[in-house]
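Entry 14. Structure prediction run on the chain below.
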Amino acid sequence: MIRSLRWLPVVPLLLVLLVSAGCAKSPSDRAQEFLDAGMASQAAPLLQIEIQSNPKNARAHLMLGQAQLMLSDQAAAKESFDRAVLLNPRWADEVGRAYLDAANRVIAADPSAVSLTVSYLEAARQRTPTLDTDIARLFGRLGVQAQSPQILRRAVELDAKLAEKDSIALLLAADPDQSPETQKRRVEQFLGAFPASGLRPNGLFALARIEAIAGNASKAKAYAEEAARATQDESIQSAARSLLEDLDSVARSEQVATATLQDAQNEAAHQALMARQADAKARADAAAFEARRQAENLEAQRELARWGFVVDGRVVEWEGMITQGGSNYTVVVRIRSLGLYSEAEATYPTLGCPCTWKLQSKDAGHLEFTEYVRGGPCLPGGVARLTRNPDGTIACAILVDGSVCCTGTLRPR
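Output returned:
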């Protein structure tokens, strides 16, 4: 009897130890709690411990990949996901969902991180094509936020029904990568297909911009005025007023240029008559040459006004942010003449690079300059290519050895 009583207290102690051991959470379970709370940096070490003790735990590899995506380590995440699917192919769909969740997190946290979001969405589709509808919707949301027709085209590729949304349809119609004629036709089709859309004023304003770029001032003015009347949106009304002011400024500049040209032609004709009367052929030739020179200069002034480089006799600085790789640099441009081989000033303030641009070729919507770097760390021998956009901005691309190294958009300061 005494011997049995001596062992009696041991039994509850053993039960407590057994219950405690059964309730202890594994590293994977604790890591899942951290992941659910968005604490990836705390989850990753626990999962690495789990994998060291059980390298064939496919779920642990999957969870580690999710944590690495949260920590923006895409290369490590891919390795972990590949290992998880190799150990258990059924995890492939979860890998796709992990990339889709990562894309959702990026859009919510930083809508400007467009390229990162696109890479996650493409990875999600590669892993799990059955998610196409969800991926397409996120592409559509991203494309509208970023005002990117290219991203929207990808959304429509995955889900053609998205093209029936007016916000997507309008951006695709006004895609600046199309010719102005195609843009005009497609925006007109949008207005016909969505007559009651709240974006109708946006479509009218897009037509106003297209007509302005094409030089059809009267049509541009009519569309801008109609867009302003059709909405209470102050941003569209302000943009329409700004466009109308620009059109009026260009018209005044062209009137001045036309009057000056007429005066020059009249003066040249008078000088030529006097030269003929005096039988001085040389003076007549010189007068004609001067008239041509003035006419060319005045035409160049008109062209400067159309581009927006000179407004009412004032040289306008254009500024923008150009992107090379993951870095952004400011560029400021002053263009006083568009005569062939004329020189312009360009500066990269953030890099400390003053440059001279010499015009090499031009047409109705494009200018190409050879860039001469006068100082700083910028690469020499580049080519600057400017293209007028339908919205009045100027696309800028810098080419080195024939390849585009950086791009951006210029706007008047």
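The first helix runs from residue 2 to 7.
Filed with the rest of this week's runs.
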